[in-house]
Prior knowledge:
Elements: E1 4-8, H1 9-19, E2 21-25, E3 31-35, E4 37-42, H2 52-58, E5 65-67, H3 71-84, E6 90-95, H4 99-102, H5 105-114, E7 118-124, E8 158-161, H6 168-180, E9 187-193, E10 200-204, H7 222-233, E11 238-242, H8 244-248, H9 252-262, E12 266-268, E13 283-286, H10 293-301, E14 304-308, H11 314-317, E15 327-332, H12 335-338, E16 344-347, H13 350-360, H14 368-389, H15 400-409, E17 422-426, H16 431-438, E18 447-449, H17 458-469, E19 474-480, H18 481-486, H19 490-497, E20 502-507, H20 512-520, H21 545-551, E21 555-559, H22 562-574, E22 579-584, H23 609-622
Parallel strand pairs: 4-5, 4-6, 6-7, 7-9, 8-9, 11-12, 11-14, 12-13, 14-15, 15-16, 17-18, 17-19, 19-20, 20-22, 21-22
Antiparallel strand pairs: 1-10, 2-3
Helix pairs in contact: 1-2, 3-5, 3-17, 7-13, 9-13, 10-14, 15-16, 15-22
Amino acid sequence: MQxxxxxxxxxxxxxxLAALKAEVIQPDGRTDxxxxxxxxxxxxxxxNVAGLGEALQAEKDRLPTLRAHTEQGMANAAVAxxxxxxxQRIMAVTSSIGPGATNMLTSAALAHVARLPxxxxxxxVFVSRLPDPVLQQVESFGQGDVSANDCFRPVTRxxxxxxxPEQLLVALPRALQVLTDPAQCGPVCLALPQDVQTFAHDWxxxxxxxxxxxxRRPPADAQELAAACALLKSAKRPLIVAGGGVLYSQAWDAxxxxxxxxxxxxxxxxxxxxxxxxxxxxxxxxxxxxxxPAANGAAEQCDLLFAIGTRLQDFTTGSHALYPQARLxxxxxxxxxxxxxxxxxxxxxxxxxxxxxxxxxxGWRADPDWSASCRHQAAAxxxxxxxxxxxxxxxxxxxxxxxxxxxRESATDVGLxxxxxxxxxxxxxxxxxxxxxxxxxALPGNYHMDYAYSCMGYEVAGGLGVKLARxxxxxxxxxxxxxxxxxxxxxxxxxxxxxxxxxxxxDNRGYGCIERLQIGSGGASFNNMLDDCVPEGGAxxxxxxxxxxxxxxxxxxxxxxxxxxxxxxxxxxAASKSQVLVINTTHQRTTGDGGAWWEVAVPEVSARAEVAAxxxxxxxxxxxxxR
Length: 627
């Protein structure tokens, strides 16, 4: 007879997660065997405290439970943790029913868009339905089996509601398959009715001895590989666009080798930045709407765009108007991404696929004049970045580039040769554009940006998740005042958990990025800057962000200028607990170098002449879009 153990559903779930081990490739190439699930972020309520809470307490030495302050914040932190580990490890999150669960919907969508693993374990209403409607239950007038958790269906890769104990024997391995699948990777939701959490079952002993997790690396099909080689060999002016898939596949060495061997210049998406060291002679920098003049100039001239591990998002492609003249080759593990815009697909793991291409393309190189020209443009852009980030604004308010420079240069103030140890975290507003162009990343993963979902409020929680994943690195969160106000409570969690992060808040008093977009589309300034939003009887906003940071337990200071920012960062780097540094900035200045058109629909009819002019320009720009 098969050996079994009698446990509740919650106890079995926790024991299974605690038993999972994964083969993890570190950024330095070292391979470690580590727990696949590093812990569970939990905010308990009446739906999960008695069942799952009891099980987590019993296994806290093998599967740590971490306390957070908001459900969205803890889920964002879990997403960031997985991204910082290049999808090789996860954290789980559990909430009570109702608002606790739906607070995590934004994080699920974020993980879904960015192809990142996230295990969601929200409590659910009673499967017996006898006490219905319970506190926080969402009742459907037409569907008796619907709860708030059904909202997770469109924003998860796999959804299941555990209605009976034995279903967990099927659901957990299915969930693990999705979380670890290189092509289908994304968020998973296992909804746990609160009575089912407490039901006992006789579980097979071998269920708690799962196999070691090793990430699969599928090779390319022979015919697709041959077609891709033929396309590359016919190109004289190829350009690589390195996306997040390069990092998820740990393919940075393969990318560098391919670029050097074949003389192909490289540009980087937001997700792919740090795939190639910033000072590599063939690194043209950021591409697209927030791209460098070097990368975007090459995109407009290339005859083949080699998209590697990228979703070809509109910010990367200039809404598909940046390189309409080029043929498209897409190396990607995900079929949907590989076949976009009728490009030639090469379906494979990025690292494996690049290795196959290098072997099959022996002797082929891009046109030498093209490679030399791109190297020259890359060097010129590197010089320009230094100029932009070291500029002294004098008595004027600094803008983002000057703050970015102060943050990076502050590393030398504490005896470091460079800021290579820093991981910068950001997500929304003007900062992603400036960081994409100007931040210098020498090591894979040291640029951590959510620009797939561009989730305001991701930054502080994301910084905590990155610090949990990379405690040896200095994690610097650079965030605007608007995004900070969206979600900041995990700053207190970082203090509680003893995971120091440095938060640099740029206060431009509103949504400066959106105001510029508003005016650029012909509109009038409206409802974006705080000082313009005070109604009769209202009061001018006067938020003291440094005081707020101190109230959360962090050390905090408001600095006068970029020079003082550098000095305070010197102190912050030496500190042992989380730090907040606030600086007033202007949204009126941005880096004018580079950039590309971005499709934002402009009204056909308006009383404003500026809108009519913007609409004419909009229609003209659309004629360049790739069809």
